[in-house]
Amino acid sequence: MALSSKITGVGSFVPERVVTNHDLEKMMNTSDEWIQQRTGIVERRWVDANTSTSDLALKASVEAIENAGIDKNDLDMIIFATLSPDHDFPGAGCFLQDKLGVPGIPTLDIRQQCTGFLYAMSIADKFIKSGSNKNILVIGAEIHSKGLDRSPEGRNVGVLFGDGAGAIVMSATDVKDDKADSHIINCHLHCDGSYAKELWLPGPGTGFNSENRCDQKMLDEGLHFPQMNGKVVFVNAVKKMSQSLINLCKESEVKFEDIDLFLFHQANLRINSKLAEMMGIPEEKVFNTIQKYGNTTAATIPLGMHDAVKEGKLKPGMLVASAAFGSGFTWASSLYRF
Ligand code: ACO
């Protein structure tokens, strides 16, 4: 018997407002055809003005806790992955903890962008394996719409992203049969900061040659909007996610053909098709949600996980592989028996 962690509950939430590619055609010089052909995205969700990231997270968290069959007071930690927190500080986890009504337990905000959820899962796994924690709420939630350039100039990034939240409860478990019992098998985490400026949000920040972290010049130059070198991201995403997954499976002595479901980050349908093609994974084993949500960064994997459960494609006991890539560049892979 070995102390491990497993996913005991999953929840998700997306805002009601659907924004189609045709809606974007009215704001930007883009077309439904361009967006679908290059990315696979058909629509995404955007929040209303009065919604914050921790509001989305709260809804996903309540559902995950309920599905885990525990009381919220059984939680002993919150790990919140987001690049779009309610405020710069304190972290979104503090706001969520208050809204959830679980005072006193530690909250940890992490960044790591599109890879954030896999980093968060891995951190939770380690806390649980150390014996210090029993039930950790792990969240990925993002509001991108409030940070995008929705003018005609913003089209190259603006069409890609959507809002949403996903949450899981990870609980301690004793694994007797590691080929059958639900548990996190292995995670690999990576970063190469020399690519930091290929996909980033320059401002506001202290990295400017300015006495203020936010000034008029920064706003005039649009540096408070995400900047991306799409082609560099594309090539590296395919390369790094496949390498990480191959190494992880090798180290864990798991064959690709034994994996029941692949839940990849959703940045671009073409990235995931290329990944599946390179690794010889049948398309039906890859669960994609980008068509309806766009790229929801840290929320993507738990959101997809919950959709897969609801659609009956992810069932207890299945062997799942996840991989993600994002700003940093950061990337990660994870193997778990659901
Ligand atoms: N609508 C219409 N035309 C557009 C749009 C748009 N939304 N955006 C760019 N274009 C134009 C460009 O201006 C360019 O025009 P030009 O040839 O006249 O100069 C043309 O389309 C081609 O632009 P490219 O940037 O070369 O297009 P590319 O084929 O590389 O596709 C894309 C762009 C979809 C972003 C692609 O590079 C990509 O998928 N990169 C991966 C990055 C990614 O998915 N990022 C998501 C966030 S990161 C993450 O989650 C990992």
Structure characterization notes:
This protein has 338 residues and is an alpha/beta fold. The protein has two domains: 2-175, Peroxisomal Thiolase, Chain A, domain 1; 183-337, Thiolase/Chalcone synthase (Peroxisomal Thiolase, Chain A, domain 1), CATH 3.40.47. 33% of the residues lie in helices and 24% in strands. The chain has eleven helices and 13 strands. The chain has helices spanning 21-25, 32-39, 53-68, 92-100, 116-129, 155-158, 216-220, 230-252, 269-279, 290-293, 300-310; strands at residues 2-13, 18-20, 43-45, 77-81, 107-110, 135-142, 164-175, 183-191, 199-200, 227-228, 261-264, 319-326, 330-337. The chain has a five-stranded mixed β-sheet, sandwiched between helices. α3 packs across α4 (92-100) and α8 (230-252) packs parallel to α9 (269-279). The longest helix has 23 residues, at 230-252. Bound molecules: acetyl coenzyme *A (ACO).
CATH homologous superfamily identity of the largest domain: Thiolase/Chalcone synthase
Count of domains = 2
Tally of alpha and pi helices = 11
- What gross morphology would you assign? globular
What would you call the structural class? alpha/beta
What is the helical fraction, as a range of percent?
A: 25-40%
Q: Which regions are unreliable across 5 or more consecutive residues at pLDDT < 50?
A: none
The fold-level CATH name of the largest domain is Peroxisomal Thiolase, Chain A, domain 1
What small ligands are held by the chains?
A: acetyl coenzyme *A
Quantity of strands, as a count: 13
Helix and strand element order = EEHHEHEHEHEHEEEHEHEHHHEE
| Strand coverage percent | 15-25%
Distance between the termini: 18 Å
Instruction: Give the strand order, joined by hyphens, for the main sheet.
Output: 1-7-6-4-5
Give me the CATH architecture of the largest domain, please: 3-Layer(aba) Sandwich
Radius of gyration: 19 Å
State the major sheet: 5 strands, mixed
